[in-house]
Amino acid sequence: MDQDQLKKAVAAAAIEEVKSAILDGEIIGIGTGSTANQFIDLLAPYRNEIKGTVASSEASAQRLRNHGIEVLDLNSTGDIAVYVDGADESNHRLELIKGGGAALTREKIVAAASARFICIADESKLVDQLGAFPLPVEVIPMARSYVARELVKLGGNPVYREGVVTDNGNIILDVYDFMIATPCKTEERINAITGVVTNGLFALRPADLLLLGTPDGVKRLT
Ligand code: 5RP
């Protein structure tokens, strides 16, 4: 099985997880990235049953609309029953690194507003310690150099993601060489730097369920 097939398998497993919420008329939170795209495509046949979705990026919102699935403003929905999204890394506590697609801030908002967060990923994403994947940090543009210097003080090697502007009009610094022993502390420490909008650690609000695609089938980690 190649990586795409593994992503499709976890997306299909996630559909099974959210089916009852769809039929109960709940709002579904939708993530961003290639695995989330597979999930969106498999949601299409349920377009008439889904009350509405909240998307974590303009790209996902557009893909949902292309399928005829309603996309709502989080300000009008109240809390969300379940959020489905991919990840760049997960450890065994289901603490994540996200933001490879630059959607981390909206992803974190939708995750925060959701009762349940289902992460979908192929097995290459499961790691013992977070940090081999460079940690994305969304930054207000005028604070770029200041925040980069502060990240160096924390032991990282921040690199400006050239040519990328987030849906919120900000820039991304990717922090390399930053093995993360205490994800909650690191998440809080980076968020406390003035000029940081948020960082791609999802440790304070980790996933509740990880559906992991493996050649032996989809594994459920809680
Ligand atoms: C986007 C994300 C994605 O969930 C993450 O990058 C994983 O993407 P993919 O499913 O394409 O591997 O955090 O900001």
UniProtKB/TrEMBL annotation:
Positions contributing to substrate binding: T32, G33, S34, T35, D85, G86, A87, D88, K98, G99, G100, G101, K125
Key words, A-Z: Isomerase
GO MF annotations, alphabetized: ribose-5-phosphate isomerase activity
Catalytic activity: aldehydo-D-ribose 5-phosphate = D-ribulose 5-phosphate
EC number: 5.3.1.6
Active site: E107
CDD domains: RPI_A
InterPro entries: NagB/RpiA_transferase-like (IPR037171), Ribose5P_isomerase_typA_subgr (IPR020672), Ribose5P_isomerase_type_A (IPR004788)
Pathway: Carbohydrate degradation; pentose phosphate pathway; D-ribose 5-phosphate from D-ribulose 5-phosphate (non-oxidative stage): step 1/1
Domain of life, per lineage: Bacteria
Subunit and interaction comment: Homodimer.
Reported function: Catalyzes the reversible conversion of ribose-5-phosphate to ribulose 5-phosphate.
Family classification: Belongs to the ribose 5-phosphate isomerase family.
NCBIfam families reported for this sequence: PRK00702.1 (NF001924), rpiA (TIGR00021)
Full protein name: Ribose-5-phosphate isomerase A
Organism: Spongiibacter thalassae
Recorded name of the encoding gene: rpiA
